[in-house]
Recover the amino acids of this structure.
């Protein structure tokens, strides 16, 4: 960005139902984040949604009276060229692929979760090559741009970018900001007066310290197990004795690891009843696009907040503002480990508090170590690294090793059989594995 | 040992059925390991076995004509005082406790394995305080003695000694020597012309390199999956594609982790048929002691070799010889990690090749890293460290955390419920957990 | 501090000539740092100065109209009890000792510098036991207080507190804030728009990055060698070719290491002319106290700024404000290394950028490594650690090793001979070395 | 080497006066090291010496009656092709260059030592590119060969090969074997009953443990300061108080660092008297070649032992035997650090005890750390790494940084001025620095 110009932002997967939240953020914070060009990009199959949501975006901007131009395009390179920020929220294979990611493992008695579960590995195999393609464009057309990645599995995608491209990249999740808001509400304290220390991986973090206005509230939070849940993970309660001896608040996604039997049963029951999370999301999305199509609508509709991904856009806008202004404030992000977790490689992505400087986030050393969590973090990270390498190389051996070492997979035999079925089902999205095949296509998340 | 005197050796748990093998070793290698005093120690409840096996030991020594005096005693301190080597092969709670270690987890659908499984944790809780008591005696009465630990779970027991005493200690397992013998037979090569690189934990190791007379035979060994099995682990075959992509030969105990579903099923089936490993061992032992009672027997009986612990005594005698003579040869031992595995603490016990110097074993750096294994090693080590600390402190919170983070335990709820039952069943052996209770008693392994 | 009360601050060495600057800071920033009790402590020999400066402090506060009570005392414990912040600016042995620190080494052809030079070691031997005594009081009477240490050698004193007490301590230097101000003036940019990355030890740091409003200005700064100097280090210019190949701006104290021959010659010349730094400082101090004694004076006099320690108080007040309010801003401080410099122990004190959270400073990972500096940093830190241990134990062997490994000392023989003379000259201040001797006495810095 | 064939050995710099010792070694140990082809290589200017020493070699072999063929050649590639071992003992610029290495620094009041001193840096700049050229040949013509490097500065040369080639390389020095022999003689104990723990860099090591037949003799050795000296370093005695507090025996080369003033004075005095080490060596060499020319001589002459490099060939033959037979014995070698010294990079060369396996040496963890030595080791290694990179790239900036950070250089100004003179004096041997210049030529060491 030239000093006297506004910012150019490219949103890959711009047809996402989340986009109106992002637009709202750009409008509200225009002063500190002077966006002048906003490019919403999507692929052909996502064009209908892009037009609906893009049209709403234009109405929202017009209503605000701000000098923001909204561009809708399927030309990714045009959108990226010269951008200051690129964000990605894509879903390679769209919701149908997600349905498969979640249902195939269940056949084998394995939790079919789309981020930290085996389903997440298939998502990674489909997604990482597409993201790295986008990175090639950024390296060429906007080498100084920041890539803000929301695409799940966000931890693995971020690490793939760190290790296999030169793009400056940060992974984002809405869980940390959600926890801060929950604590803020519980104690009626301003968010910037809360210091919550996160450690772990994306969707696999522990919170080891919660200071509210300088007072340690961790024990109180641990005692309030009922209050700590999330819309997109079934709300089983934590065992209080376990939490107290853990001395940390686990991410709600950790229920897949700490309550494996119950979570699996719940998924199997839902599946029998014909429901799965992908289907639910699909219905919610359709309703949202119906609402967005209403030409009278000129603001983010309330219903969007029930979508499950609340705060995603707030997280994104916060991060862009801090990077743009060098505010040096603290945010929880997915970045390279450096030496924060001494047992992981320096280039492993971790989820950790960072101070956001003008030239990027610097991860903060931990004030409290979670000794119980080390092994699980390392086990999942080992799986993740094998899966990333499998995605990049298309090497079936690595995919076998990744799945066989996933803590939720009960045996090598299940790993291999399940992998074969999952690979076959995703054949069209895995050119690295099935050479000579058509390229993957990615619609908005 | 004064320069012109022979060596004094104390065997804690001397009434073990393994003892005749040890006696045979001392007789065969008397020249390089000039034992003059051999003390077999056991507790009151083990006195019958001690007398039977001790009597056989005396006959064996007499037959050899060597100047070795065999002492049988229940006075541990007398045996330890001034000893050059102390070896332990004890079983706190005897085989009945093992039966419970293996059967209780099965009720909860969890593998009941006595070393790396949850059963091993109960064994650790019973055993570690007894071993540390022995260490207090060694610190006082034989501060320069080496403690050779065969007591399972050998990795955890060794680490407990490393972290909670000043005794110089080494953990031993027969698996590595077994692998060398197998390779030696397969290739008709002398054992000292084979270099096999072990890495991992006790009963949780991988072999990443097998050189036979300077030639790399790993791939051949990986291809020969049928040949690689062990008497005390059911002989399921490894998936060849998995082994080849792993690029390492896993310990047969790793079947509990890599074939969890099948191994569990097998255990459940056996249990239904009224059999369990503890019962089998019990019967074998009774037969052995019957044989030992034959006054005409003056040598190690052949039947002992089918006991499953073959090579234990060979490993022990080898190690004592090397320490005594400072031979600087290479053996696979359980020792402090130092910086061999960079992701584990320096005082974690690992199983690794060491050069045995006069002043102790020095672990050798790895020439090949097993990247796939890191996570599993770390996960099990994390569990082990929590369990060791639980054993030393009697802290129920640590026991909960240990079990909840064990890779074979499916949930926190199962961990806590199962733990409660296992603690209750072992009440008399857990004075640290049940204050004011009687001290634990330990008979021979 | 109770929520509705003001802060209590204890200044050990309150009779220092720097104190008026501190008072000014408390007055200017009373809103964010609501000090209500200010205790200036000194020892008997410093009472005259304490009264002069304390009287000025009271006049300054009265003029401000703020509700701050100023207490003057020789009772350190009364001052510390319940304090929120304790700052130390003491000089054990006063300026006469400094004169000896600087002159004795010169006899042996060694630079007599009072912080990073051998003179600094004598200062450390005298000072560390006194500071640790103060820490014992803080541990007992104000366990939650922050200790802000300005006492030189600040790096070694801070590390001694980190390793030998439980007090929460931070070391401070005015050099980093000075550099920021210089850059700010040069580029006419607000200080909070400058990010300068410091790495190294106290008085031994390198600046590897200087961003001004997001633009990299390091090369410009490296080219402007004339502009980069300091009042209390002779202004020799840096060799431009050296600076450019170093890719970092060295602290001006590094001239003692990078221009050893010239700096030594300069000191020898000055010494011949009867001047030394200690004498100069002594004269400046006397003039200042004359000025302070003027009862009409009700503000910090301009002349104080020429004292050489400009910005010390600004640094102190900034740090207290940030700790009190949890502002999470970035300051350059002396704190425990953790894993920032991977080649140093975790508890080594280093000088590094930190984000100042409510519960203390967290050191920020480096964005640029200074590969050339590693060896020198490690050499000086090795000396420092030996010297700290010598100070705490009074072990002459450690003092010999410290001095013999100091990069500015040309040989073991010089180290031992010089040490003997320095120890003897400081006998009354070294009770750890000369048992049965009188306790050291410390007047204000 | 095919299984039924003998070994081929190439000696680069075969015209060295040391060669007869090597021949003697090959003859004495032919059984364990069945050499059949021995190629002595040298460059044109060294042809006279090569012929003299080669002719002696042939007479020695003939006298032995062994089936060894000795080839003399200036065709390096022919000698290397298919070799099992390549050893290098070259001197780029020959003794005249050494004379300059040692005399130029003295002009600037700097010790002119040819290995760890600034003279060693010039030697490194001349030598490393030639060694890397040899490595290119080995990579192509004998990729499985071991390169045994005796060429000084052996630590830097070895590290250059580790970092800039794929050749399997080990650096060797005669100092460790010399220490063992000295201890062996003092205690009348067999060398294999002595365990001396070395740690540090080539010519910069400390011995932290000396066990003789299992007994700790370090203190006795430290007390016997007179006994510990070497022919090629002036025999100043160590200060006993220093040694005892160091708790380690320093290499005699460490006198340049621990007695800098005295060693410099000695060098200056010698220089005034017209003597320097290079000149002395030159005279000794001439005498040796006179002796070698005697056609009646058919064995290694006694006079060779006074040359200063005693045991070099013994070290070489020992190492080849152990590698060839996989004896797993312990030798002190220059190898990659891995994680032995945690503060150095993994690929830094260090001098350390190794167990020599069939597939190479594995460095042994330290049983005792030398905490006082860390800083100096790191400072010298930092200089070494900069100098290696300067040699490879011809980057003057790196050479400036290397010399400016050398602990024996008093200032940046001296570093730059001295460097300029040394570069100019070596112009013909530094094609990387003076592009378009003739290639360097290397005669035997």
């Amino acid at each position: 960005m030239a000093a006297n110009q506004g910012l150019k932002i490219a949103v890959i997967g711009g047809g996402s139902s989340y986009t109106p939240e992002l637009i709202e953020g750009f409008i509200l914070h225009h002063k500190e984040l002077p966006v002048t060009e906003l490019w919403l990009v999507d692929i052909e199959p996502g064009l209908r949604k892009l037009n609906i949501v893009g049209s709403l975006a234009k109405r929202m901007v017009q209503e605000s009276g701000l000098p923001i131009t909204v561009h809708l395009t399927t030309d990714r390179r045009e959108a990226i060229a010269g951008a200051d920020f690129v964000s990605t929220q894509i879903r390679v294979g769209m919701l149908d692929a997600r349905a498969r990611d979640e249902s195939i493992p269940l056949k084998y008695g394995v939790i079919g979760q789309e981020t930290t579960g085996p389903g997440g590995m298939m998502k990674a195999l489909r997604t990482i090559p597409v993201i790295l393609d986008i990175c090639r464009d950024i390296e060429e057309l906007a080498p100084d741009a920041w890539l803000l990645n929301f695409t799940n599995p966000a931890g693995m995608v971020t690490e793939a970018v760190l290790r296999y491209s030169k793009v400056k990249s940060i992974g984002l999740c809405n869980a940390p900001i959600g926890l801060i808001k929950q604590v803020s509400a519980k104690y009626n304290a301003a968010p910037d007066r809360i210091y919550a220390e996160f450690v772990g991986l994306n969707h696999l973090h522990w919170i080891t310290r919660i200071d509210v206005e300088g007072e340690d509230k961790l024990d109180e939070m641990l005692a309030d197990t009922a209050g700590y849940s999330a819309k997109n993970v079934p709300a089983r309660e934590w065992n209080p004795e376990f939490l107290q001896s853990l001395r940390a608040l686990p991410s709600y996604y950790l229920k897949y690891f700490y309550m494996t039997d119950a979570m699996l049963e719940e998924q199997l029951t839902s599946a029998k009843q014909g429901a799965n999370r992908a289907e639910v999301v699909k219905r919610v999305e359709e309703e949202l696009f119906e609402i967005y199509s209403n030409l009278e609508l000129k603001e983010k509709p309330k219903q969007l907040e029930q979508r499950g991904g609340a705060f995603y856009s707030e997280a994104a806008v916060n991060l862009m503002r801090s990077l743009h202004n060098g505010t040096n404030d603290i945010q929880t992000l997915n970045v390279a480990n450096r030496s924060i977790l001494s047992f992981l490689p320096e280039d492993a992505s971790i989820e950790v508090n960072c101070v956001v400087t003008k030239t990027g986030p610097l991860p903060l050393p931990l004030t409290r170590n979670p000794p119980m969590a080390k092994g699980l973090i390392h086990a999942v990270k080992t799986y993740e690294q094998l899966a990333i390498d499998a995605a990049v190389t298309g090497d079936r051996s690595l995919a076998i090793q990744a799945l066989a070492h996933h803590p939720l997979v009960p045996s090598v035999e299940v790993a291999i059989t399940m992998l074969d079925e999952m690979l076959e089902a995703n054949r069209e999205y895995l050119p690295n594995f099935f050479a000579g095949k058509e390229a993957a296509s990615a619609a908005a998340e």
Observations:
- The domain at 1-442 of chain B is CATH 3.90.1820.10 (LDH C-terminal domain-like).
- Chains B and C do not touch (no CB pair under 8 Å).
- The CA atoms of residues 379 and 407 of chain B lie 7 Å apart.
- The first helix of chain B runs from residue 19 to 28.
